[in-house]
Amino acid sequence: MRRILTVLAAGVPLAAAVYLPSASASASASAEPRTTSTPFNCAAPSVKAPAGTEVESVTAVSQPGGTVQGTGILQGAVTDVPAYCEVTVTLTHPGADDHAKVRTWLPVSGWNGRFQGLGGSAYLAGDNNPGLATAVKNGYAAVTTDAGVGDALDTSWALNSQGQVNTALLKNFASRSQHEASVVGKEVVDGVYGKRPAYSYFIGCSTGGRQGYMEAQRYPDDYDGILANAPAVNWDEFEVATLWPQVVMNNEKTHPSSCEFSAFTAAAVKACDKLDGVKDGLVNDPSRCDFDPRRLIGTKVVCEGKELTITAADAAVVRKIWDGPRTPSGKKLWYGVPIGADINALAGADPFPVPAAWTKLWVAKDPSLDLSTITYSRFTELFKQSQAEYDKVIGTDDPDLSAFRKSGGKLLTWQGDADQYIPAQGTAQYRERVERELGSAKKVDDFYRLFLAPGTVHCGLNQGDGTTDALGALTAWVEHGNAPKTLPATLINADGQSVARDLCNYPRVLRYTGHGDPALASSFKCVLPSRH
User: Fold this and answer.
1) What is the pLDDT of residues 264-319, one digit of tens each?
2) Is Hydrolase one of the keywords (predicted)?
3) Which of 185, 390, 445, 499 counts the most CB atoms within 10 A of its CB?
4) HEC string of 226-289?
5) Cα–Cα nearest to 487, from 472, 507, 498, 497
6) Which residues, in sequence order, are bridge partners of residue 309?
């Protein structure tokens, strides 16, 4: 459970260091701090209901700040938070019997004129307090919504009493509640400060990343800038696909130990490390890594004091997990666990709870479904059923971003190449589809840029597995027109060492220049991959 909580927590800002803007994101002439002689009044403003909703209640509470604790299983804490006003607006959609809380936090002093929307994690639709607190600490007015659903692993709302999918709450979670939060939050800002934000930004990773892409696709005027990392787009495909390691092990009747899986990953990273021209503990272009797991057959691995020998059956399982889901006839359905990512994340003793719940409740609509009995044929059926029923609802993979481009919005994404939950290939594939839709990579680069981080896990940057100031880069792009050519970052290599890298704008990848310290960003350049 601790591993699960750690991973889920990666989807939301848990500490003040997360998404901390640099000087480039500080208050500027174009986003002036609030200046008024009127005393700050934390009172419930008048709020007009967004289209299709009714306002059930509006409350305002003065909060002293200090240390803010995170709620639910994700927890977290932020210290030294200044005093703020918390305005809560509860919305309902007539006939849906839902109650979605929209919470807006407004700093009592030092507002930088900006507005920030915050996304969620797993089945948590919004922030559990630390993200809001971090935003306030950095001068933002911030908003989030619970969409009327529960905590990160709470799926009690999935089916109604008749065993049917609760379509109203799914629609809330998938799209409309985030948009309504943006509308309400800005109205609250106007009601309390007497002026609307100069700039509006959305921040999220994983589920929050998907919500950011949803905003760009469906509500292109909500935000000027969207920072949507490791985005859970292609939801209807990858949620079922992430059960593939379990399906493979059960059907092959082979369950390698965690130590054996780790041995395969370490061997692959070692074999493919030098593909970028230097041994630096990072695989800079996993698509070129063709390490054959059969090379480890017969290798001895010590696991919890016992010596194990890797078998041909173990290697076959790893080969299938890396390759990804296929139909019984061999047709590829989705991407596998990336080579270099932690296989144990999805191949543990129990299925990862997020895809397990999606497959049982929303797809099969059978809470008692025994996932260990799923055959390759049944897996294919479930995968295609998820696509057919939910692509338009929560797939979030519409490549037509022309309205967002026209609105002047900017979309920035980073994702780890070693993301163990959401394969970066799916995000890259979406970016390529946008290029085909809009005509060229250059046209897309004008407003949407993707940066892949070598060796980095799911939502890993700014979560103890490296850092980057992506929000600073985004604000510089939105407010000053400085499009990020690269995204400076600190990464952690296979040896646990910190190395500096300027992440490349996709599809470019890092390549060693042939001289210089491999720990320095200046020793690498961005080049087009040899196979793309």
Assistant:
1) 999 999 999 999 999 999 998 888 899 999 999 999 999 989 999 999 999 999 99
2) yes
3) 185
4) EEEECCCCCHHHHHHHCCHHHHHHHHHCCCCCHHHHHHHHHHHHHHHHHHHCCCCCCCCCHHHC
5) 472
6) 300
CA–CA dist 65, 515 (Å, integer):
50
Residues that are catalytic: 206, 419, 458
pTM above the 0.90 mark? yes
- In sequence order, the 6+-apart residues with CB closer than 8 A to the CB of 328 are 376, 377, 380
Rounded Cα distance between 38 and 16, Å, is 30
Q: What is the dihedral of CA 425, 427, 431, 433, to 10 degrees?
A: 70
Beta bridge partners, 77, equal: 69
Contact 122, 207 (CB under 8 A): yes
Contact 439, 195 (CB under 8 A): no
The predicted-structure confidence for 404-447, as pLDDT tens digits, reads as follows 999 999 999 999 999 999 999 999 999 999 999 999 999 999 99
Report the alpha-carbon distance of residue 291 to residue 264 in Å, rounded.
9
Question: Tokens 């499009």 label which residue?
Answer: 483
Q: How many residues does the chain have?
A: 532
Tell me how many helices (H) and strands (E) the chain has.
Answer: 15, 18
Query: What is the spatial distance between Cα 183 and Cα 221, in angstroms, rounded to a whole number?
Result: 10
Helix (H, G, I), strand (E, B) or coil at 511: strand
Q: What is the DSSP letter of 189?
A: H
Contact 365, 164 (CB under 8 A): yes
Distance between CA atoms of 469 and 254, rounded to whole angstroms?
43
Distances (CA, A) of 377 to 127, 272, 418: 38, 34, 28
- Cis peptide bond upstream of 21, omega within 30: no
493 phi and psi angles, rounded to 5 deg: -85, -175
